[in-house]
Amino acid sequence: MAKQKILIVTHSLDNTSTQTVIDYIRQSGGEAIRLNVDGYPMTTGLTTAFVDNRWRITLDTGTAIHDLDDVTGVWYRRSHNLGKGLQEAIGAEYLPAAIEEVKRTLIGMLEGLHCFHLGRYSVYRRLDSKEEQLKMAVRHGLLIPDTCISNDPAQVRAFVERQGGRVVSKMQSSFAIYQGAEEQVVFTNAVTDEHLQELDTLRYCPMVFQQEIAKQLELRVTVVGREVFAFSIDSQQVANAQVDWRKEGVNMINDWKPYTLPEDIHKKILSFMDDYGLNYGAIDLILTPDDRYYFLEINAAGEYFWLDRLCDHAISRQISAVLMGTAPRR
């Protein structure tokens, strides 16, 4: 069997989980190439050329030169700070166009690699649609909360009334709002009477509104290939975490516990992953007090590092094995 060559696309400030996977790949006899996108294009060169009826792709990281045309596996993990430093090197009027060209060149190269991808960038972008995720979950027999996605204040008021006022709101994308130097991260929040009084401003920006589901436990289910790693947390023990555990994520990082999913939920999740052709996904579920499981969303690049520590890095080992082709994959 030819030596496996794996390309990992991330950034220089990524957490240790990426390096853990790289170490396992190398221990298994594979070659791991790390592309930190925050160095592209300022300190990293990327060239694709078609000459003499052959494609050749060359990556120059500044410390090493790699041929990528014979890569056997790709893990697109992150592309944070792509184009970092360009704003200081070129005029502001050229920056948007340059950033767009940098992005298109990188993604075009990745999409053109006809090898195994843990998850293609194009599929990640498809998963930006929370609406399609929810419809897919229902198709595969998973429960979801009653949901309204709208910028129409009248429709949302009617939805909130049908739910007896017990509704949470969330955004489809992850972002923060900066007020001066202060960062305000947008979490899932309970809808209050005060929010309803300001509902007319919804016209300017649609939001997701969902039935508030009573929680016995919250689950993070990480799927790698055909393996499912489930963990639970009792978020209801901390007041600030009851609606969204991430608000106390750092303080509760050691409160997660391994969890065994019922066989039917296990099968439905794998069927859901099959439909998307995904080999990695972080799924959020709610277990209700009457033992029903509700699907909230999947993140195709979701974090898992704190859970990896609870299972002796079994998630990282499985990612490595799927990338290397030594474990079952889609």
Automatic annotation (TrEMBL):
<dbReference type="Pfam" id="PF08443">
    <property type="entry name" value="RimK"/>
</dbReference>
<dbReference type="GO" id="GO:0009432">
    <property type="term" value="P:SOS response"/>
</dbReference>
<dbReference type="InterPro" id="IPR013651">
    <property type="entry name" value="ATP-grasp_RimK-type"/>
</dbReference>
<protein>
    <submittedName>
        <fullName>MvdD family ATP-grasp ribosomal peptide maturase</fullName>
    </submittedName>
</protein>
<feature type="domain" description="MvdD-like pre-ATP grasp">
    <location>
        <begin position="5"/>
        <end position="123"/>
    </location>
</feature>
<dbReference type="GO" id="GO:0018169">
    <property type="term" value="F:ribosomal S6-glutamic acid ligase activity"/>
</dbReference>
<dbReference type="Pfam" id="PF21068">
    <property type="entry name" value="ATPgraspMvdD"/>
</dbReference>
<feature type="domain" description="ATP-grasp fold RimK-type">
    <location>
        <begin position="130"/>
        <end position="304"/>
    </location>
</feature>
<dbReference type="InterPro" id="IPR048936">
    <property type="entry name" value="MvdD-like_ATPgrasp"/>
</dbReference>
<dbReference type="GO" id="GO:0005737">
    <property type="term" value="C:cytoplasm"/>
</dbReference>
